[in-house]
Prior knowledge:
The chain is an alpha+beta fold. It has helices at residues 2-9, 16-22, 34-56, 62-75, 96-100, 162-168, 204-207, 231-234, and strands at residues 86-87, 90-91, 106-111, 118-125, 128-134, 140-145, 173-178, 182-187, 192-196, 222-228. It has a domain at 1-75. The chain has eight helices and ten strands. The strands form two sheets. Strands 3-4-5-6-10-9-8-7 form an eight-stranded antiparallel β-sheet. Strands 1-2 form a two-stranded antiparallel ribbon. Helix 2 (16-22) packs across helix 3.
Amino acid sequence: MPKKRKQLVHLAHLNPELLGVYFGLNRGEIKGDSTTRGAVAMNRYLLVLVVLLFACTGDGDVESQTRVVQKISSQGDYMINSSSGSLGGAYVGMSQSELSSMRYPQSHGSSLPEGEEYEVVKVTLGQVEIDCILDEKGNVHRFSTYSILVRDECGAGVGARVAELKEKYPGGKILIGDEDGRFASFVNGSRVIFVLDQNSIDDSCFDDMEKKCGLDEQDVKVKQLVVSFAAAAAS
Length: 235
């Protein structure tokens, strides 16, 4: 019992501003002074964490769950909240004005995914860069990163093998095909899409989507993380 308590107390070192983003502190959803609000946020965080531990470790092994807690506490600001779709203050659905008010370096450009032009805001969150794609209303529809520092609550991110993803998320799905361009990804029912490196996937997997693809799950790795409103629906 003391060992478990020690691991959970270690979570107190997480950035309090990040906890505020996760649990509505910056949007006035929790009332009271700063001490009370911080305590409420931490309690909520621990409650969500317990649920996520069981989602990340299919066998319910206590040692595995402890290791996940350690990974989460060490990730700090670069951990994605996969249920709300947020990272370091940025979240899907936020307005362009909210994005502009963030105290991070930003640059603007455009992108042509799926043949349509979208405005892109590149935001530098410390050591991590994310590309925020805005919809026609100017809200963040999705954001993405190639950084190996960014992880979800289970420790999955860029560089993870498909075999590791399937172990963490037994109910996840691999989506491979060619529709308005080739795509290959792993989805798990959250707002995170794990984009796979297509260079490690045989061409036949894209040419015939009905045919079962002989994917080398130890060789194919995650190339990019995309956080999107549409991710959960795609799974």
